[in-house]
Amino acid sequence: MRLIWKLLRKHVSLFELSIFFIANLIGMVVILAGVQVYTDLRPLVTGENALVGNDYVVISKPVKRVNSKAVFSAEEIEELKTQPFTLRLGEFTPAQYQVYGGININGQSLSTLMFFEAIPDEFMDVKSKEWKFKPSKHKIPIVIPRNYLNLYNFGFSQTSDKLPQITESMMKDLELELKLSGDGNTQTFTGKVVGFSDRLNTILVPYDFITWSNKRFAKSEKVEISRLIIEVVNPSDPALLSYFREHGYVPEEKPAESSKALFLLRVGVGVIIFIGVVFSILSLIILTLSIYLLLQKNIEKLENLRLIGYTTSAVARPYNMIAITLSVSIMILSLWIISQLRLIYIDYLAESTGREIHGTMALTIVCGLALMVGIIIFNIGIIRRKIVEISRKR
């Protein structure tokens, strides 16, 4: 092996190998980065932690006169559940008592009357481990619309120098003093914001808390439902819009969401991976040409080595070692680069989406190993084939 290497290394071009290394590194990084980004983003557009998926429509009835209540009857709710456009239906359960809330920011106190609502957890667009209520702890987890925070930052905070603009993470660190009163009972709780909703324009608390608190503070056990949330495939379905018009239901405006998000994500990642594949193919072509040129330069030595009894495997071994060393180095460096890039964007994603990113690099590592093995097998194959061709010509 050492003797053969000494004979053949004179015509090894470091420049050509460097070009292959850089081109293949770029290709490998782009491909694996596409896989990793898709792995990290996929839970945000599918599954129970999704930002988008099927669309949700919140409907209510118009208020027609003073002192009237625009509520849904049990028959209307059951009829909606049976419609072909309805995948799931959930009810907004309101708190039937007074809620008075206060917060202290930089020594400046803000307080106001509030309201609470709850919906089934499967309709929530915010998932949190803190989304549970225990009466013994007197702590209420709360989800508020993201635009409420924007109203504070660009509205209330502009009216006083003592009210600073605050981030979502800062808001989650604040504690709200909540006083609940009704049916002759009054009790103080601590409220904690655990997330920000882009889908629902209301102040949400756990369903278990609403059930518990209505029994404790409400004068009446009967809960009237004034809003519904419906999961549908297509919110622009003519049958859906026609049904709403016929029954006088009013769909609420919501931030733009689309079930096409996953498709767009796949297309975007697919383009990234395609570019990476192109780079990798080009680098393989460069390597193939480099090996062919290197073998051609050493053709006389290779012929002599075969004549004196060296096997094809022995003659090919130095070139195989070059290919294997380069491929392994490229894979290791690619995974390291992606791990560093991931550290940069993972915190940004979690902060901007309000969700914890639990993805791993397992799939990326498996894909990297598969690509590395494929490239090595390809390289070994073309090296062996060329040496066999040289032997036959002799």
What layout of secondary structure does this protein have?
Elements: H1 2-8, H2 14-45, E1 55-60, H3 74-81, E2 88-91, E3 93-94, E4 98-105, E5 108-114, E6 117-118, E7 139-145, H4 146-154, H5 168-173, E8 175-182, E9 185-197, H6 207-217, E10 227-232, H7 238-247, E11 250-251, H8 261-297, H9 299-307, H10 312-353, H11 362-393
Parallel strand pairs: 7-9
Antiparallel strand pairs: 1-10, 1-11, 2-10, 3-6, 4-5, 4-8, 8-9
Helix pairs in contact: 2-8, 2-10, 2-11, 8-11, 10-11
What does this molecule look like?
- The protein has helices spanning 2-8, 14-45, 74-81, 146-154, 168-173, 207-217, 238-247, 261-297, 299-307, 312-353, 362-393, and strands at residues 55-60, 88-91, 93-94, 98-105, 108-114, 117-118, 139-145, 175-182, 185-197, 227-232, 250-251.
- The chain is an alpha+beta fold.
- Helix 8 packs parallel to helix 11 (362-393).
- It is elongated and about 105 Å long.
- Mean pLDDT is 79; it is low at 255-259.
- It has two domains: 2-50 and 261-393, no CATH class; 55-251, no CATH class.
- 52% of the residues lie in helices and 16% in strands.
- The strands form three sheets. The protein has a five-stranded mixed sheet with strand order 5-4-8-9-7.
- A hairpin with a 2-residue loop joins strand 8 and strand 9 (185-197).
- The protein contains eleven helices and eleven strands.
